[in-house]
Fold each of these.
Amino acid sequence: MVSSGCFKDVDFSIMVHPAPFDLAFYVSQALEKAEVVYKGKAAHAAAFPWEGRNALDAAVMAYNSISMLRQHMKPTWRVHGIISEGGVKPNIIPERAKLEFWVRTIKNKECAILKSKVNACFEAAAKATDCTVDIAWDPIPHAGVLTNSKLAYLYQKYAGQMGVVFPSREEQESIVDGSTDFGNVSMVVPGLHAEFCIDSSVPFHSHVFRVAAGTQYAHDQTIIAAKSLCFTAIEVLNDPALLKEMKEEFLQAVKDA
């Protein structure tokens, strides 16, 4: 939608998401996704192993290299991946192996740095095992969400009037979530990605969270969150000076992201 210009004439964008807590100052992580395919040469693993080039060895080496990279990663950096293909039979040297890896950082600029380090691990494993490698990074990475403070404080004000109690801004910003494509939206217009509590005892995206989402309490909290968004939007639309301040903050935040 961003690439298609859907937000070209939009002044700001606001949304809410159910959660185990209430917050307006949302922090997410920038995300880069890679699919990595190693290709070697099949051979009989018992009769002629020297004729083969083991693509699974390349995948394992890349995986282990990234694990060793972790001691040099910042505390807020995240890398996680799987070996999704690793051969077809134990007696055949694997001629193809596939990795899927996700790279995340809170700062958008740091994601490019970590991506480069991880990419070097992929390439080095290919050289070490005499395999070829095809590294395909997702052409549309997720940016970290830039929370507009003017929108966040407005949402907090209206939700607070309906009984919602928020932690301090510092406490809210200490909670680092996963990644979302709303981050890309927040890079083109001032944005708010608030979260509202439906059950403080259940984790995101779990079976128990699904059950909690169907309760009357969750329904009531959803109504409060929706009303808070509406009141936030109405105040901004009726205050040109506030909108101007929001856009000024947004432009600076994009430069610093």
Note: The chain has two domains: 2-28+143-256, 30-137.
Amino acid sequence: MSIQLEDIVKNYGAQKALKGISFAARKGEIVGFLGPNGAGKSTTMKILTGFLKPTSGAVSICGIDMITNPIEGQKKIGYLPEHNPLYTEMYVREYLQFHGSIHKVGLEKIEETIAAVGLVTEAHKKIQQLSKGYRQRVGLAAAILHNPEVLILDEPTTGLDPNQLVEIRQLIKALGKDKTVLFSTHIMQEVEAICDRVLIVKKGQLVFDKPLRELQVNSKQTIRATFDYKIEEQFIKRLPHLISFKNPIENNWILVFETSEDMRPVIFDFAQENGLKILGLNRENKNLEGLFQELTS
């Protein structure tokens, strides 16, 4: 495994920031790392990158122990922290050449990276002249410059306009084909567009860890239906694929079906056949945002 955490605990005095987090990620996997503010995401990332030591537990990057040998492990990592640290008085190309000299990266690779993140037209400028979106690109360029096996990106799309979002999203997906990417964001649509798997943390604990496709292919659907007058349960039970129902208010029903077929047309036909009028018919989608709110609220 490229990333391995086992029962990570981090205490700041009496405050328990992480309470036994464990997960692993392999090469070719893009993992979305989600949680509300203060959940422990940034602390976990700092431990993964060797900037913080855990109170207890084990962490390794590409088989290298990050507690006993962090420098060797950091050679395998590209890291873009939430607050992107840049030497703003330097020119873009100069800054990346500086990074390249640390990793012994040649000028050709530097120019390839500048092109890959869309900085060709900005490379001659000082970083302090750049917009926030372009500064994010400089940070991402520095993170991928040495071709790391593991990429850890903390809010990488902050400050990007819609066109830049598409470009960086495509770049991250391309990088994820032969690297391990841990991707933290508050934008659920970004996770749904980029990631293969989702981790959700709450109050220092991992509360969800599943492939995104399992959420996307969930065959259960919930439909709220409002009819023009009260009907009996035996009529509702005639609906096909119905697995549960509630009748919270006189003419309102919450109907749960086990099928990939959209059941709204079926309910409409059912109403007509039974002389009913439909006053409301809404499908509630179980998307990532809904799951996040359910698990973290």
Note: The chain has three domains: 3-76+148-214, 86-139, 220-296.
Amino acid sequence: MLTPYECRCGRSHLPTAGRWRCDCGGLLDLPLTPVRWPAPAEVPSLWRYLDGGDVPWREVSLGEGGTPLVEEDGALYLKVEYASPTGSFKDRGAVVLVALARALGATRLVADSSGNAGTAVAAYAARAGVPAEIFVPAGTSEKKLRQIRGHGAEVVVVEGSREDTAAAAIARVEETGAFYASHVYNPYFHEGTKTYSLEIFEQLGGVVPETLVLPAGNGTLVLGAHRGFAGLRAAGVIDRVPRIVAVQAERCAPLAAAWAAGAKEPEAVRPGGTIAEGIAIADPARGSRILEAVADTGGAFVTVGEEEIAEAHAALAARGLWVEPTGAVSYAAVRRLRAEGSPLVAEGPVVAPLCGSGLKASL
């Protein structure tokens, strides 16, 4: 049986094709459950870490997961998430959402995205044979739009902010009754992204990293990574979760501002233009959850500037790693923190993701 959604108002809801928020209007969550460990070796892809018995994942899977963990200098490891089937870590969550949609009998999907989640949902929807409509903000990389259209999804370009794009997608969902394949609102997405942590734990031979340095826009990787290690902790496999350092672009940093102010909720900001388009989220819907997750680990928020991102992008390319600009923000933060002698990265292992391929967007 699929795990019911929970809302902080106290209500719970069985998953249905039309359910994406609580009747009170609140966000839906999934209860934390212990991770079964060790994961069965005979199951292919990231589904070896998940209980996929109630969803037709084999009909949807593209072999996602198992991305390389590249050792840089003995203390720093880079997780090459752009080796995923559609070129970003969003495949981890998208395959779970689309498999869920199939299990619930959905006949059409709607998603909104700054690019990578849209390409992932479009690809897995094509694999599942379910029509998809992807809403994107104006200014989204043309390469990402071509990829979405290439998978057969309909693209709707919205003039306005990332938040305007989400509002337009929600309006379409309410108008049509489509399954809202939202990486922000549907917590099953985090069931996919939690496998990022489980893979790292396994690839490091059962060692818990000291620090995970992660990009933070809508927080899907922060929340998933925290959930994975918290699940191992709940199972008694580990006794601590790694510190999470969440990274935002200086020009759009509502979470970092809230953290600095000691606030429990971020306030919406007016975003400036940033080359890190994938994390340019002015008003993250799960902001309080992201802040709570980082606090649980004894972590912190940091911001990086445009020049730092560009320099990190070039440095990665010089090491044979070709990422989109957003994919360089975690590495930019590591470089800065190391230069400052920050205790946040003083001890290893430190792990940072290379989230999206440079074939999707470039400087």
Note: The radius of gyration is 19 Å.
